[in-house]
Specification:
alpha+beta, 5-stranded mixed β-sheet
Length: about 400
């Protein structure tokens, strides 16, 4: 698109003014030299050449050539004898021609250097612009990736919550349906008293399990339980068997080895809570250990006051520097995925398990199994005191 006529005329005027100004730059130099009575061509030539270089630096090639022509005329007229445009000696001709060639070359080089500098500056600005666009593109891509990962995390969290809530609700629903279907409350119920008791026990245990899971979502770490623990004498074999029965569906793809010392003393614990902890540990082991590998549940005497329970697997293991962090809510070991996509964890099982164990004067931690690979989660639980070991009640003096 052509520029308007007025704009073209203005540009032409500006261009001609640049040429006139370039030619006029010689006048101050000649005037100063003439006032100082300097007629030596050896002094005038460098000053006139410097003028050409400066004009080329700020005005470009065309004005530099005009300055060179003006300088050559002034050089010939005022500084080469005889005064005027006549040149007599060969040396003066050589000086005159050398001045012209030097002025043209110096002007051209200075103008070219200025163009290169301008091009380099423009190139830097273009690189900065492209870099900024690239940074903006990366930022937008990062935001999009973060949003995508956030959506994936939300979906995984929702799936895990759904799974953990559905499991006990399914058991409760099945037990209630069986009770209703068998007419449990009618005088001629098809269920025996023992059958009704077992179904009610399932409802009670699964309701407690659901309650503990919800507490794990809402209570802070190391908090005291919302409900009191009912500590009773419990045989180790009984809580181990209960945990294994509850985890039977999640461990069906693994070989489960149980090693329980038959001479172990009874525990002083809340049986339902420890059963839940054993289930959590077996569930975790079956999630992350490859199918067909062995999961070991061992119980042995730790010392005179504690029994040691260990669940070990042959999975990828947990790095030593993360073995405490896995007991933090919602923490998951990076790059450690469940073999079953429908059983992804959300990082609540072990925190809930630790709270249940510690509220019963126990401890739980993670170590490397004796085989050197996999994960071993160990807990110590208090032994029930024998009647003779229990503190005697304080005697009240008769009045």
């Amino acid at each position: 698109m052509r520029a308007p006529i007025g704009a073209r005329s203005y540009n032409q005027v500006v261009r001609w003014l640049k040429y006139v100004a370039a030619a006029a730059t010689v006048i101050p130099i000649v005037t100063v030299l003439r006032l100082a009575s300097v007629s030596d061509s050896g002094i005038a030539a460098p000053l006139l050449l410097l003028d050409v270089v400066l004009v080329a630096r700020f005005g470009g090639t065309g004005p530099a050539l005009v300055a060179a022509a003006s300088g050559a005329l002034a050089y010939s007229y005022y500084f080469l004898p005889p005064e005027g445009f006549g040149i007599e000696g060969a040396e003066d001709w050589i000086a005159f021609i050398t001045f012209i060639v030097t002025a043209v070359i110096a002007g051209g080089l200075a103008s070219r250097a200025e163009r290169r500098a301008a091009e380099a500056q423009e190139g830097r600005r273009e690189i900065e612009r492209l870099y900024q666009e690239l940074a903006n593109a990366f930022e937008r891509a990062s935001e999009a990736e973060a949003a995508r990962r956030n959506e994936q995390l939300k979906a995984a969290l929702l799936d895990a919550l759904t799974h953990n809530l559905r499991t006990p609700l399914t058991s409760i629903k099945a037990a209630v349906t069986a009770l209703i279907g068998a007419g449990a409350w009618s005088p001629v119920s098809e269920l025996s008293r023992e059958g009704r008791g077992e179904l009610l026990q399932v409802i009670d245990e699964e309701s407690d399990r659901l309650n503990r899971f919800i507490e794990g979502l809402s209570t802070p770490d190391r908090a005291e339980p919302a409900h009191p623990m009912y500590l009773r004498r419990v045989r180790v074999e009984d809580v181990v068997r209960s945990g294994l029965n509850r985890a039977e569906t999640v461990t069906r793809d693994h070989r489960v080895v149980v090693s329980v010392d038959e001479t172990l003393p009874a525990l002083s614990v809340d049986a339902a809570s420890i059963t839940e902890v054993i289930y959590i540990l077996l569930d975790n082991a079956s999630k992350y250990a490859p199918r067909g590998t062995t999961i070991t549940l061992a119980a042995e005497l730790n010392d005179d006051r504690h029994v040691r329970l260990t669940v070990s697997d042959e999975g990828p293991g947990i790095p030593a520097d993360l073995r405490e962090r896995v007991f933090e809510k919602f923490f998951r070991v990076p790059s450690r995925e469940s073999h079953d996509p429908h059983r992804g964890g959300i990082g609540l099982g072990l925190p809930i398990g630790r709270r249940l164990v510690e509220t019963q004067a126990g401890r739980i931690w993670i170590e490397t199994p004796a085989a050197g690979r996999g994960t071993a989660v160990t807990m110590t639980l208090p032994v029930a005191l024998e009647p003779a070991e229990r503190p005697a009640p304080l005697a009240v003096a008769a009045k």
